[in-house]
Amino acid sequence: MTGLVRYPSPLPAPLSKAVRAGDLLFLSGQTPRGDDLRPVRGSIEVQTEAVIAAVRSSLAEFGLDLSSVVRCTVWLSDLDLMPRFNAVYAAHFGAHLPARSTVEAKLVGGVDVEIEVTAHVTSVSKTSPSRAKVS
Question: For residues 38 and 13, what is the distance between their CA atoms, to the nearest angstrom?
Answer without folding.
Answer: 14
